[in-house]
Structures are given as structure tokens and as C-alpha cells.
């Protein structure tokens, strides 16, 4: 497969720690082809920056012209640009390239060295705000850079949101038990976090993060998923190994970051103070039936299923009293059968009403989770503390990261295959993504979507998932056929190579 091409227009660090050197290491770990374009030369080492020498604009323009026809980029990342004229060369080329087709632009506004040296005066700051940021797909400042871009007395988030679709303010330089980045994107918003690694070798973290994000965009991931991957890669490169110089050593990410379970971040809806603690009951395993009928759910329990979800929809215009009466009529026979068999009964969506009926396990889609206001979320958290069990859907990397924050009893990964049971924008996950979910998730994973034949359930079981959902197939074949399929698949794991997930949106 041809590697996606990205350009990095940035500074050359003579000490090899940050700038284009860091960008090359990140691109290699991300599996993309990097074209390194020097916008500035720096005289620096591991201790500090002693000089910055912007590349003449005509030389920068010549580098980009040489690349444009032979190695056109899917994404461009900018780092240290050196001056206003260099910035304007970049904006002109971004515009030219976008006349030919889509090109993502990730702006890492390198305004100051970690040692305190300033790289940008007021004129360059204005050029960033007025000319470069409005063209950006994503901007990745740290907190101090965001504050400088925002200006005196203006919240950094407010200023950046005005001109950029996706903002990720990195927080690795801040204090605290967690390294927390603030993310705002068309797909998701929140605080992306991992336990802080106290590492001596952290030179070039911002460069790595922005380059990894650009590389993920070039690989087809949407910005929120790209931010998850950038967080994983950058954290993987932090270490306390011996440094070649007297100061901080470079970040050294490797391609293996993508299958390191310690690196999957959590996406919190509110600022976090601690890593989430899991509180899980017995795992959900085997064939997971879904039906819209309480009577049918009872039949499935009687036939041997250990887990059944009741998926009811409230009708348009249905009054609250009528809805609760109908829900109770559907829940009670299924709940009674589950208790007789010591099985697991789950109600979809309607967690408050389900609690009033004695149900202790609910499933929520993430759109339903996000629709809860602060009071409802607090009530849900209290219910969970009292024993309510929870399953969550996930279709993308950022949704899996949100599941890490919520620590449900299981995560549903889907749709594994195309499904007609509900309309959704997601591409099928396939067995490769399901296997990645199962390997990376801190909680059990349930495969769902498009299972119409026992052979498909066999494949879900063989992928490493703890359970597989069957919906329409339960009315077409006896339960015994589905149970036999699961047992068959669980006994012969698929030979799926651990590797990259593919984009699902």
C-alpha cells in the first residue's frame, strides 16, 4: 500500500530533538511518508535555543514548488515558521493545493521555546490569527501558546474557536496526575487524558503531537479520532532513558504504540482530576440477544440465552403515563424469566424508567449519554454507585476513549457489518476493528451489527470479543444454532495480526 504523504513545514533543530527531526520520527511511527520542508534553521542543543534563522521566502517557496507536482500532500503540518513572509508563502501554497483537492492543515503555533525563548512578535501573532488559523483544519497550541494567540483578557478557547474547526490545547506541560488536552471538534469535545509520565526525555512533544495528528488525518481519520492517535503516539515516546546531551532528550515514538493498551486515553466530559476506577460486575459473555418484545425476551431466556436486551422506542406523541404502562408490560415478563434463569436482562436507553421496574442493567448509545444534562449525569453516576450496570455503544476511537472515562461494564463495537436495524453514518467496523477494540479496551467488548448467519457469529467469537449480538437472526434460526456457533468460534481464535484500526467515519 502506498503511504499517505504529509508535508511538515517547520524548523530544523540542530540538536535533533524537536522540529523536523521530531516530525520525521512521528511520521515513521505513524506509517506515513514525510516531506520535511525547512522554514527556519535553529542553532540549538538539548539545553536551549541560541539562534533562529528564517529561510528566505524564495527558498521556502522553491521547496514547496518542487514537491507540489511530484509529492502532493494529503495533509500539511506547520511548526516554527520564522516570520510573516514565510507564513504567507505557506498560506499561498495551501490555497493553490486546495484548488486541486482536499488538503488538511494542522497548525502547531510554535511561538516560544520550552526554555522561554520567543519565536514570534506581535506582527507574526497577527498573521497567525488573521491569515493562517482561518485556513487550519486543526490547531494544536499548548496552553501558553493558546493564551498568546487569544490575546489579553480573552479566553483562549473562545478566540481559537472563532476561526478553526478543531482545536486541541495540549496540557503536557501542566502539573497534575493526568496529562490532559482540551479538545473541541465537529465530532466530539472534552478533555483527553492519560496518566502523566514523569519523563526526562520530552523534547519535541508538541511537534510529535501535531505531526501524528496530521498523519492520522492523511490516513483518513476524522479530527477527533486523529487527536486520540496523536495522544497515544506522543505518550509512547516519553522515557527516562539516558540522554545524549545535558538537557532533555527527544521523544522517541515507535510503531508499536498502536497496540499498547496502556496508551488508550480517556475522553472526559468534564475536567478530570483522577484516572477512572472500574466497577464492573460479571462479564457479559456469549450470545447477546436483542428484541423489541418482552414476551420474546422471556422466550429467549427460556431457550438458553444468558443475555437479552429489550430495545423499545417511545412512539411520537405517546404520553408519559401510556409509555410507562407499556414499558412495564414489556419489562416484567422478561425480567421474571431472567431472574428464573439467573440471566442478564438489559434495557436500552430508558434508564430512569427501567430502574423503577427493578432493572439493574441498562445500555446507552453515546448520543443518549451526551444528551443528559449535568443533573441527569450526576443521577446516573449515583445509580451506578448503588449497583446499576451500564453498557455503552462505540463506533469510533473517540467514542471508545469516552468509554474509558465512563468505565462501563462492556463496550459495544459496531456495526461490524452493514446493518438495517438503525440508520447510522458509520462505516462497517469489520473484524479487524473489532479485534483491535477487543485487544485495547479496558472492559469487555461486544460485537454488534449485521449478524444474520451463524458463520458471522463464529467470526465475532474468534475475534476476541466477549459477546456477539444477534437481532433479526433470532427470529430466523433457533437459539441452539446461535449458541453452537458461539462455542465454535470461541474455540478457534482468528489469526488477525495486531495492527492499525481503520477509519469508521
Automatic annotation (TrEMBL):
Cited Pfam families: Phos_pyr_kin, TMP-TENI
PANTHER family reported for this sequence: HYDROXYMETHYLPYRIMIDINE_PHOSPHOMETHYLPYRIMIDINE KINASE THI20-RELATED, PHOSPHOMETHYLPYRIMIDINE KINASE
Gene3D superfamilies per the UniProt record, alphabetical: 3.40.1190.20, Aldolase class I
Keyword DNA damage appears in the UniProt entry: no
Pathway where this protein functions: Cofactor biosynthesis; thiamine diphosphate biosynthesis
Protein name: hydroxymethylpyrimidine kinase
Keywords: Kinase, Multifunctional enzyme, Transferase
Enzyme class: transferase
GO molecular function: kinase activity
Domain Pyridoxamine kinase/Phosphomethylpyrimidine kinase: start-end pairs: 13-251
Domain Thiamine phosphate synthase/TenI: 296-473
Cofactor(s), by name: Mg(2+)
CDD domains with a match to the protein in the record: HMPP_kinase (cd01169), TMP_TenI (cd00564)
EC number(s) recorded for this UniProt protein: 2.7.1.49
